[in-house]
Amino acid sequence: MQKGEMLYEGKAKKIYRTGEPGVYLVEYKDDATAFNGLKKGTISGKGELNNKISAHFFRLLEHRGIATHFLEQVGDREMLVRALEIIPVEVVVRNIAAGSLAKRLGLAEGTALPRPVVEYYYKSDELGDPLINDDHIAVLELASAEEMNVIRKMALVVNEILREYLSERNLELVDFKLEFGRSDGEILLGDEISPDTCRFWDAQTKEKLDKDRFRRDLGGVEEAYQEVWRRLVG
Question: Which terms does the UniProt entry file under GO BP (predicted)?
Answer without folding.
Answer: 'de novo' IMP biosynthetic process; cobalamin biosynthetic process
